[in-house]
Structures are given as C-alpha cells and as structure tokens.
Amino acid sequence: MEIASRRYGDVVVAAPAGRIDHANADGLTAALAPLLEPGAGVPALLLDFSGVDYISSVGLRVLMMAAKQLRGQQRKLGVAAAKPLVGEIFEISRFNLILDLSPTVRAGLERMSPAAVAAYDASAASAA
Amino acid sequence: MRVRFWGTRGSLPVALTGAEVRAKVVAAVRGASGRSFNGDTEVEAYVDSLPIDVAGTFGGHSSCVEIEPGGPDHVICDLGSGVRAFGQAALAKHGAVPQTYHIFMSHVHWDHIMGLPFFTPAYIPGNKVFIYGGHAQLEEALRRQQARPSFPVDFAALRATIEFVRLEPATRYDIAGMSVTLKKQRHAGDSYGYRFEAGGRSVIYSTDSEHSLADMKETESFVEFFRGADLVIFDAMYSLVDAISVKADWGHSSNIVGVELCQRAGVGQLCMFHHEPASSDATLAKVLADTRRFEEITRIGAPLVITSAYDGMEIDL
Known about the structure:
The structure holds 2 protein chains of 2 kinds. By secondary structure, chain A is an alpha/beta fold. Chain A has 5 helices and 7 strands, in the order βββαββαβαβαα.
C-alpha cells in the first residue's frame, strides 16, 4: 500500500486510501513503518482518512500498534476526516476511546501543533 | 435442531440487584404513562413490546447450552451454573426414567464446571453421563472441585454412571445422533470449540476463545471451522479495543471479530455469548444494537442474523 504524505510544520499528514482489511493491513503496516521509526524526524503523525472506505479489525490493530509505538516515544498520532461509515466503525469497536479523532485535517492539526496549522493555512492560501 | 441457553454469562454468575429491578419497573411504568389497558392480555402485550433491558434480563448463570438434535439423549455444552436449572427441568420432564446426558466441555475453568455439584441427575443411579473434552485433566478438575475443603459432597456421591471421554481435534465423532468435531482455541490452558451437525443443520459452540489478529493462518482456520454454519455461539465478551489492548491475552474475543469471521464463513446467525459480568442489561442491549449496525454497514453477501444470548433463550434451526 502506498501512502501519500506531506509535512506541515512539525506534523506529517499521511493519507491511506481504499479498504484496510485482512488483505492489505500488512501493506499499511509496512507503509507506516518509516514514519514511525524514532529517527524518522516525525514529531507527530496525522492520518488523513478521507480516502479510506472501510477498516476491519486487523486494520484497527495496525492503528493501535502505531499509536502505542508513537506514544512510547512521546510522539502523537491523530486520525482525521474519516468518512461516516468508518467513523461508525471507530465507535462500535470503541476505538474512538483511544484514538485522537478529528472531523477535518485542519482540526486535527489544530489539536497537534499551532505551527502545523499555520503551515497548512499558508499552503491552502498559496494553492488558492 | 433446537438450541436452548441455560447460562450465558462469562467468568462469574451475576444476579440482578434490587436497584436494577427497580430501575426496570420505573422505566416500564414511565413507558405506560398515558396508556390504558383493558385486561391482563393488553398488559402482557405491552410488557412483551418492551426491550429486554426493561422487561427482562440477559441473565446471570455461567455457561451452559443445551442442543436438541432430535434424539432421546440430552446434549449440553459446559457445566456452568446454568446446568442446575437444566437438570431440574430434565427431572421435571422425565421423572425417574433413566436418561443419558452427553456433556461437551470447552475447558475446565471454574465458571464452566461449577454447576456439576448441583446437577441433580448426576446423583441418580441409572442415569448415564458422558463428559467429553479435549483436556487430559478433565476428570481431575471435576473431582477436585468437589474434594474437601472446596465442597461438602465428594464426587463419589454422584451415583449416575459417569464416563469421561477424551476427544481429539480434527477427528469426526458420531455422538447422540450428531457429527461432532472440535478445535483447539486460544485461551489460558487451552479451550475447545465444537461443531455439531445433524439433520442438515450445524451449530458451532466457540466460547473462551481469543482471536489473534496478527495470525492470519489461525484466522483462516476459524473461518473454515465456522464455514456455512447455521448458528455460531461466539465469545463476544469484550469490545474490540479492550480485547486487543488492556485485555489482550485474557482469552476472550469481541463482537467485531465475531461478525467478521461469520461474514467470511457464510454463517447464518451469530449469537453473542459469555457476556462480561460487569455489563448491565442496558449495556448488553446497546452492544447488540451496535453489532447489528456493524453487520449492516459491513455486509458482504447474505445478511448475517445477529442475536445476543440470554438465559432461557431458544433458537430453532
């Protein structure tokens, strides 16, 4: 699984896409691995879930392992912009209790770092 | 084939408290506000329209499930506290006529064996009791719980003819008119799940079973074990997040994993079982509603019927 990523200040926003289930959860693990390494230079990671259509228990486990790994290094993990169906899966599995969820990428950045929000807004302004 | 639940609670039997009963009565009376009832029939119809967390309870006995394959013998899974009521019902129905009981044990943890000393048919000469399981320590565990100082009546007082039968996984047995296979499961000290088939119907009894999401091969083996079953009775004790974090390696599973396995296996009905003793009726009702919604939004192929076991529940297949 390839994940598009972009840095805003001290936060990296990575965007997995499609279904995350038993068939490709290993791919998500592999794709996230470079971002999770202690020397990756990623103080905080925000997953933009706007392109994710479905996530199974195996995929949720990948998120939990990533959050656990980052937390052990005093780094943050957030998930933003999940589609309504994926949001329901977070709630029914009770993952909403352990994941830092935000309705939009900007809101997610806002929770993590003022510098990242400023960089995001500047990027959006220049794109407009 | 009929399945009847005599005990559905996990780990420890529980009882409704007075405060919980009062809350149910208050909710029922509040719901009746403004209504008028013309006789008991209408009162009972109103009560029957209320959800289980108001008009009933999921119940508190530990694991015991009866399967009626259609023959004269009795078949039950596990000897939790629910087996006491099962034994009383069998005696009420058959009186002094000797009966044969086939008991399939998932494992010998306390909540799955505690009912035997209160299973009256086991004390009656002439009855036959076959106790099946995959554990070598099956007989030892059942004898030990009735030895001093744990219990005042020794196992030797059970005057029925009792025979222990060790079963091997992946072997097909013909017992009580059914085809029976068992599968080792992930649980402290191991547990065994059973697949019962008779008359073109199939039931899986899979409790006290943790599913490792990191082991795809193991997952596939359970999909095959569940394949095409009409009913899967499944350990859904925890939420998914608890099952793989704070309660990882506690030997239990979740509603989410139950739905996923059953969907992939083409199962007809998933019945959630081995309820967390700390969960209230309202919590279990919420879990049932959430699980039905999860099945709906993740459905692949035919709908999977979702139910949640309660003491006294019957499922006809």
